[in-house]
Amino acid sequence: MFLSFAVAFCAMLMIEVIRYFKVYPVGVAIHQFMITFIDQKDTGTAILSHIYLLIGCGMPVWLNSLSDNILPGVSGILALGVGDTMASIIGYRYGKTHWPKSKKTVEGTCGFIASITLFVLITNIIYNYGYSFIQWIKFILFVILTGLLEAESNQNDNLILPLFLFSLTSTI
């Protein structure tokens, strides 16, 4: 995964450069395609959300490359690919109770926490992480804290959430 994320990062960076400078013949087509996916967090001329997402998933893999503990290494994939995705889906479909001064919902946050916890508990059956009861309690607490950070963050959280969860799970 280390090399795969590095290659994907280089490819995405090159695509963004081609889009930004509208390099003939594909630059304009890439630009037209990409602008359909931007939101209020992509306010500058460079569209960086997709690169932040890739870095957010890859950075824990890169930082954890020398450790045998797998969960910190996949914390980016857990936080963004599982948790943030489920928070968005559940919050959009079922969200009724909004956090104060936020568009985000309590139901979305619960989806974030439940999806990561359930995903890791199910994958533990296959991989047996070897965690003690206390370590599992810590992990669930760390997921709750990350879910609350996601709920409170108004910026592009694709970099913050993976690093936060990585930092916490590295202590287990």
From TrEMBL:
BP GO annotations: dolichyl monophosphate biosynthetic process
A cellular component term, taken from the record's GO annotations: endoplasmic reticulum membrane
Annotated membrane topology: Multi-pass membrane protein
InterPro entries according to UniProt: Polypren_kinase (IPR032974)
Key words, A-Z: Endoplasmic reticulum, Kinase, Membrane, Transferase, Transmembrane, Transmembrane helix
Transmembrane domains' residue ranges: 6-24, 45-63, 69-94, 106-127, 133-151
EC nos: 2.7.1.108
Group of enzyme by EC: transferase
Cell compartments where the protein resides: Endoplasmic reticulum membrane
Listed GO MF terms: dolichol kinase activity
Family: Belongs to the polyprenol kinase family.
Protein name as catalogued: dolichol kinase
